[in-house]
Write a structure and sequence with these properties.
globular, eight-stranded antiparallel beta sheet, disordered N terminus, single chain, Ribosomal Protein S8, Chain: A, domain 1, mainly beta, about 45% strand
Length: about 100
């Protein structure tokens, strides 16, 4: 079972100004921060449990959002900005949709 989501955050923790898409909440206890000699790896997840958008609509929303924040699309769900790479994956579990973001610098 998932940890209780929180609605208090309007942006994805550790991902700067990246907003949380309407209908999604930050999934508590999903944050992973790994420091390495050359930088950092950060992972955070969002969850939608009711009336979730289709995966293509989620991809389109984050493509527009990331482009507006200065990220350049490298592949379908992969973006680069300066010395950073950001990816996201969309998963369906039961009736929920989870978006997992990972940023590496």
């Amino acid at each position: 079972m998932f940890s209780q989501p929180t609605h208090a955050n309007e942006t994805v923790p550790y991902f700067g100004d990246m907003p949380i898409m309407s209908g999604f909440s930050y999934l508590n206890d999903s944050l992973i921060v790994f420091d390495k000699p050359q930088g950092q790896i950060v992972e955070a997840s969002l969850i939608c449990e009711v009336n979730c958008s289709a995966p293509n609509a989620i991809r389109d929303y984050y493509h527009r959002t990331l482009s507006n924040l200065g990220w350049v699309r490298h592949q379908t769900s992969s973006y680069v900005k300066k010395q950073q790479q950001l990816t996201f994956d969309i998963k369906s579990e039961n009736q929920s949709v989870i978006v997992v973001f990972q940023r590496e610098s």
